[in-house]
Structures are given as structure tokens and as C-alpha cells.
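Posting this for the archive.
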Amino acid sequence: MNFKRFIIAFGAIVLVTVMVLSIGCQNQPTAPQEIAKDTEQVTAKMRRTITSNQTGTDGLWYTYWTNGGGSVSMDLNGSGNFAVRWSNCGNFVCGKGWSSGSSRTITWSSSGGAQFIGVYGWMTNPLVEYYIGRGGGSSKGSYTANGRSYTLYIQNMNGPNIQGNGNFQQYNANGSGGSPQNMGDHFNGWRNIGASVGNQNYQIVSIEGWNSSGSASANVGGGGGGGSTSTTTTSGGGGGGGSNSIVVRARGTNGSEHINLTVGGSQIGSWTLSTSMRNYSASTNNTGGINVVFDNDGTNRDVQVDYITVNGSTRQAENQGTNTAVWQNGSCGGSNSEWMHCNGYIGFGDVSGGGGGGGSTSTTTTSGGGGGGNITYNLRARSTDGQGQVNLRIDNNTIATWTLGSSMSTYNASSYNTGGINVEFYNDATNRDVQIDYLSVNGSARQAENQSTNTGVWQNGSCGGSNSEWLHCNGYIGFGNTP
């Protein structure tokens, strides 16, 4: 062996090794893939998934309960955000809100479908479980909350409850179950009709399901009080009011959202929104296109526009064909939605013309003897997945069939037929339910939640019940008889 050559080679190896180690010890820029990896890790740490009965705090107070059937997982995503996935479940209740109820106004947004999504809570002395927006039980009486009519149904229950297992009462406030809900209105209404309001326990926005599979998510917003109306008046032109009066009915999900009202390209109103639905008013002499503009989108910040009125005439947001701010099909921009998830606007038509269109109305005309029909029907409905199909049946004869969109739309028909009126859901499937707001017969609205026959709602562990907007199973809502 040539010892000298070995020493030289070994020295070279040592020198190269030292140089590599030295370079490796220097501060190097972080590669883009490492930044992405770190971001994913931080996001994962913010999101926590639970699968066992518990309560705790994750931005807001949360609760997870299941009777153990199938699998149920709840993603805790911080603030008021959470999501639930379930498969072949028994019964579960998951939600976010407050460990102690109050007369607060509760707001939220949600996606997906479940047997119940809405305000849910408990009281003690007496022990009461309550739901806002569903029926079941014996009528105690009617009252007004959120400016709408509700009927309180009460039924005696026996089973799991917040004190263990045993007897309790269930209050079902039947009426609109959507956001926002002024709980002070409900509690006062219950007292006024003689229903006990005890000590407050927890109060949440709940996602609940039973004997099903699916997924849903919710973002719980405001828990503040305050009234349901706040009015601001501005004028376009040069002051002194205006000949055209416009009212915007809207809210934000966290109370810092900002909108502008423009007419003919000029701003005539500017407001920061509350978390509860309020009226924002302006007047102007301007004419032209009316836009409601959302201009400060941010994390957990969205706007819901219920409607605007123009000189007293209502234009529903979900009927408008232009909405550049809604998130639809993976991007900003679409139509026929109350929601604004991105900076953008909803176009409400012209001051002098009507808003609407854009595929929100479907018309069918049938007749018993030709030439149209003498009884007109307007069905206000939607399906959770945009594929639910319904028939309008008069005296067991189908006079119209529609495939429902995922946003509330109006479906029209006319007929000479007389007899019992049913709206029938017939293609039930996983994550597919139908919600019916009302059926108008010759201009007179019949609210779905006021009807005593509903063979498609899931109540008390099976299909069939009454006084609900929802059809969870194949079946129908009976809307009485023709005039």
C-alpha cells in the first residue's frame, strides 16, 4: 500500500466534509415547499377532530353527544366554526354556542344537510329541551318572534338529558328556523302563552342527525342583544331627501362587514352591519341600476342580504340573476343567493324596473279542459343538494313536476282541478332533503309549518308528522283543499 497516497486522499476527504458541514450550518432561505408544509402543519394544529362525548371551548363553547350508533366526528375549526361527519349514526347532537343561555340574538351560516340545523338548548326548573324551527307535540299557543309567527308545541319525553336519564319536556317552536333568532322574543312569547321559562343551561347552534349518513358545517356568529331594526337615512343628489326610497335588509356574520348601496353607479348609502338582520334605509333622486356592494371581505366575514324594497316593493336577494360575491362552483360569482362571501355586489335591477329573474322562477300550466287553469299555485321551495324532485298533486292528479334548486325559488302552475292539494317529494337520497317555505293558492299563502299533515318529515324517530317545512323522506305535505 502507498502510505503517502493514502494520507493525501484521507486529507482531501476530511477537507470536503468540513466544507459541507460548514455550509450546512449557515442560515439558508426556507424553500417554498417547506413554507407550504409548515402552513399545513399550523392549519392542522388549529383544526381538532373529536369523536367522543364531551364539552369544552374552541373559540366558542362546544358540545358533542352521541348515543353511540355508527360513527360521528366533529371538526373544531376555531371561533364559531365547526363541521360534523356521520355514517350510519344512531342519534347525535354537535354544536357551538354558549354554556349558559340568554336572550341574545344568535346568527349563523351553514352548509350541507342534516335532520336539524338551528338553535337548540336546555333549561332547568323545569327541565326543558328546546328547538327553534321544528314541530312535534301538542300546541300551546302562538306568538311572534323575529317579526314572524311561531307556534309552540310541547311534548313529554323520557330518555337521555343533561341531568342523566329520565323525564323532561321538549319545546318545539314551529316557524322559520333560520338565522337570525332573537331568543328574547322566543322566551317572552313562551311566557305570554303560559309556557314555563326556567333557568338557562346551554344554548347552541346544533347540527343533529339520526339514522342517517352525511356531513354539514356551521359558523356561529353573533350572540349580542339589540333590536331587529336599525335605520340609517342618506340622500343622493344634493341633500334634502329623494323621490325613491330604498330599504336594505341585511346582516353580517361577525358584525364588522361593510356594504354600500349604489344607484346608477353613485353611492347613496354606506353601512357597517350588525350580526342580526336590520333595515338600512336611503332615499335618492338617482335612477338606474341598484347594487348592494360588499367591500371589506375577510376571515369569517360574510354578508347575508334578505331583500331590498324599492318604493315599498320587495325584491328578494335569492331571486336576482347577478351576484358577483357569492361563492359558487369553486369561485366568486354566481346568482340566486342571499350570501356574499367575497367582495362584490348583488344587482337588484333598476329603480324603475323589477329585480329578479336569472332562473329563480319555473312556471307550469296544466288544465282540465284546455286554455290554462283558473286556480294558480306558487310553490316556494328548495332542496339541499339541488336535485330534489317534487310533484304538485290536486285530488291525486299530478299537475306539475319540478326539480328544485339549492336556493329558495318560486315554481308556478295553474289548473282547473279541484280537491286536496299535496306537495310530494319522491326521490329521497343520501344528503337530499326538501324544504318548503309556503304554497300560495290564488295569491293566498299557506305556510308549510302550519300544515298538520306531513308524511315526509322525520319526527320522533320515524317518517311522518306535522307542522314542519321539511321533507326528509319520500312523502308529502297536505295543504288543504282548493278554493
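Helices lie at 3-24, 32-46, 183-192. The chain has three helices and 39 strands.
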